[in-house]
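ok trying again, last paste got cut off:
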Amino acid sequence: MAWWNTPWDLGDRHAAMAIAAAVEQQKRLEELRQSWYDQGLPEVKARMGLVCGPVLAGNIGSKSRMKYGLVGDNVNLASRLEQLGKRYGVGILVDGKTCDEQGVRDDFFLRSLDVVRVKGRLEATELFEVVAHKTPGLLCFEAHRNFCERYAAIRDLYSRGSFQHALDALGEFLGTWPDDKPAFLLKQRCQELLESPPDSDWCAVEQLHEK
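nice, full thing came through this time. structure:
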């Protein structure tokens, strides 16, 4: 676990700094994976969950054994996001509130994956994948923007209950990105909703029953 903006004040861009660190770590891990593969070693992956919010921070423990640490609901939520990365097959997950922090949307490509209610929380959490750092001029810049915008349009269709239109769009999306797990999961969900139409009060919040 790592944290920014406590115990030292890092200003208004601490959330963007934290995400930048996560992106750089994933990039370095990708390089190491290739090196380890060449040596015949197992593949190693790491998932990351980032949340921005108030926590209880300070020295925790007793005189004989003490450390500086964090506790609180947002610490637990960050842990849940790390675990949900496996469900969606992504490396970095952040919540919607973190996306609204200064510099985050300006500096990073973010893909809205889902809106969930995790076990033990009443409040719904919007999940975003951190796709990449925004670096204008690189060949991948437009590809990343197209990837995020196309998926956002599909999510909008799904959220409005246009399941067939979303399913059609997902077919085209998966034709371009066939290994994208979030798109595959959303396709399955649309198919299920078409087979068993929901009630009129349906909303696009996925209730999670496992931690």
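cool. The two ends are 18 Å apart (CA to CA). The chain is about 45% helix and 20% strand.
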